[in-house]
From TrEMBL, chain A:
The chain crosses the membrane at residues 56-77, 84-103, 131-150, 178-196, 208-227, 239-259, 265-285. It is found in: Cell membrane. One of its GO terms (molecular function) is transmembrane transporter activity. This is ABC transporter permease. The keyword Transmembrane helix applies.
TrEMBL record, chain B:
It is a peripheral membrane protein. The keyword Cell membrane applies. InterPro entries: AAA+_ATPase (IPR003593), ABC_transporter-like_ATP-bd (IPR003439), ABC_transporter-like_CS (IPR017871), ABC_transporter_ATP-bind (IPR050166), P-loop_NTPase (IPR027417). It is found in: Cell membrane. It comes from the Bacteria. Residues 2-249 form the ABC transporter domain. GO terms for cellular component: plasma membrane. GO terms for molecular function: ATP binding; ATP hydrolysis activity. It comes from Mucilaginibacter hurinus. PROSITE patterns: ABC_TRANSPORTER_1, ABC_TRANSPORTER_2. This is ABC transporter ATP-binding protein. Keywords: ATP-binding, Cell membrane, Membrane, Nucleotide-binding, Transport.
Length: 289, 249
């Protein structure tokens, strides 16, 4: 049972990144893979600040800002230099590897003897249970904030930017600025996942972000499959499904491991699982048609 | 009032595919004037409209709207004055947003999109009343996604959206070209009504010479980036449909 609780906690840690990918990919229609770098950046900033004995509440805005900066750089390269979004993301992600390594000074920082988010409240004596409540609370606040944002006038303008650029420009929105803001928001959410994971696992590692984009893509695609299948319009339901997607994804990986699949094959299983979800609607359609 | 002074636009300058889209055009569209532009493909009509809208910036010359120099302003900065309806019904609306959300954005064309929820019950009711005037039965479907509507319905709503916020200038780029004859007729009549009711200064591009004859109080013909005919007021009224046809023979 503990095994699945760990997967659930990992899924909650990844909810930020899933929301981030949902915003860049689904709201803005931009394939952004700065993710691998900005996730690690969030973890690195967290580890550095906490080991310098900075308080958790002070670390949080620093992580948000660092992620936002990374996203903004990708956004500026994409909009101002007219570079393909995918390439812009790859460039920033690659550069961030050096940034992260330079910031850390080594490849791994353990959080020994530091005060983390999970020490703030003692709801349960079991550390995993305690972590669950803190993460759940954190993710709930995050989701409510993003959900509200998408409902505001600014949020509508964000959604229209990814949906009908000619229309929203004619309605007075600087779409370049909006895309930069959107990518900054998406990557600050991604960095928040790095913030949570680092504190949950107790260390930041230079390689923690490798392949992370596929995890969040998987979560969003699980959600999207259900959204399209049931014809869901509500923003709130969509966000809830994205969060569920992140958890389901981790659960599937946990089940895979518990079936005795070699841990070295985990990335392969991840990729195949995402492939399966992506192709599922089409395969089902073929079958019924 | 829109004033274009010696406006010039060359695309792909210096290359083999160089196009002199707008050739030193000076044009004044008075307040409340409804200008119709006709001309064959590649005559520069759309470029001229895009220059007014700000989607394309001129190589030379100046453009002003209501005595403000807007020559270097981008399209999103000119939305303070200008509302647009595009040829493609998909361009004027956001298909994955609901009708009411589309209207909310249109209602903020001249102001900032802030961090508060603007789609309130009061807003919904006021928009429903407006939509009801179209007589299309769409007033009870405001929660529906824009993408589920037909091209004609979307163009009619786009027209209505343009006057949801303060509007001085309405630019219509072949708004009915992609529609079936009946929808086209409804859209053109709706446009004409809105232009009259709100006393808008408008520019309509059309290939439909019947529309060019029926609508507007001034007509110009463009060819190779220049204005070659300009007929307004009484003379436009006296113009027959056949005469306009002969311009193209």
């Amino acid at each position: 049972m503990d095994f699945y609780l760990t997967a659930l906690l990992q899924g909650l840690c990844f909810s930020g990144i899933a929301l981030g990918i949902y915003i860049s990919m689904k709201i803005f229609n931009i394939p952004d893979i700065t993710t691998d770098g900005s996730y690690t950046l969030g973890g690195v900033v967290t580890a550095i600040m906490l080991t310098q004995h900075q308080p958790v509440y002070f670390t949080l805005p620093a992580v948000i800002i660092s992620g936002a900066l990374a996203g903004a750089v990708t956004g500026i390269i994409h909009t101002k230099l007219k570079i393909n979004a995918l390439l812009a993301g790859i460039l920033v992600m690659t550069a961030l590897y050096s940034v992260n390594l330079t910031l850390m000074g080594r490849s791994n920082i353990p959080l020994i003897g530091t005060h983390t988010l999970f020490d703030i409240l003692q709801i349960s004596t079991d550390p995993n249970n305690n972590a669950f409540w803190i993460l759940a609370f954190f993710v709930l606040i995050l989701a409510v904030k993003i959900g509200y944002l998408l409902k505001t006038d600014f949020g509508l303008a964000m959604r229209a930017t990814g949906n009908s650029e000619t229309m929203i420009r004619a309605l007075g929105v600087n779409t370049d600025k909006m895309k930069i803001t959107g990518l900054a928001l998406a990557n600050s959410l991604t960095a928040l996942s790095g913030y949570l994971t680092t504190q949950y696992q107790g260390f930041a590692d230079i390689n923690m972000g490798i392949g992370i984009v596929i995890v969040s893509l998987g979560s969003v695609i699980i959600a999207e499959t259900i959204i399209n299948w049931l014809g869901i319009i509500s923003t709130w339901t969509s966000l809830a499904l994205v969060l569920c997607g992140a958890i389901v994804f981790q659960m599937v990986l946990a089940i895979t491991l518990s079936l005795g699949v070699d841990a070295n094959l985990l990335k392969m299983v991840t990729a195949l699982f995402v492939l399966l979800i992506v192709s599922l609607p089409r395969l089902l359609l073929k079958h019924s048609g | 009032m829109i004033v274009l002074d010696s406006v010039d636009k060359v695309f792909n300058s210096g290359k083999a595919n160089q196009v002199h889209a707008v050739n030193n055009v000076s044009l004044t569209v008075a307040d409340g004037e409804f200008l119709v532009i006709v001309g064959s493909n590649g005559s520069g009509k759309s470029s001229l409209l895009n220059l007014v809208a700000g989607s394309v910036l001129p190589g030379r010359g100046t453009i002003s709207i209501n005595n403000t120099d807007v020559t270097r302003l981008n399209d999103y900065d000119r939305s303070k004055w200008i509302a647009r309806v595009f040829q493609n019904p998909l361009s004027g609306t956001a298909p994955d947003l609901s009708i009411i959300d589309n209207f909310r954005l249109a209602a903020l064309r001249t102001s900032a999109k802030g961090f508060s929820v603007g789609v309130t019950t009061a807003f919904k009711n006021s928009i429903r009343e407006k939509i009801a005037t179209l007589g299309m039965g769409l007033e009870n479907k405001t929660g529906q996604l824009m993408g589920t509507l037909s091209g004609g319905q979307r163009q009619a709503l786009t027209l209505l959206m343009s006057v949801t916020d303060i509007c001085k200038v309405l630019l219509l780029d072949e708004p009915a070209a992609a529609l079936d004859p009946r929808s086209a007729d409804i859209v053109m009549k709706t446009a004409d009504n809105i232009i009259r009711d709100f006393k808008l200064t408008s520019i309509l591009i059309t290939h439909n010479l019947k529309d060019a004859y029926n609508y507007g109080n001034r007509i110009i013909q463009m060819s190779e980036g220049c204005i070659i005919k300009d007929i307004k007021g009484e003379n436009k009224t006296q113009l027959t449909q056949n005469e306009i046809f002969t311009w193209f023979s």
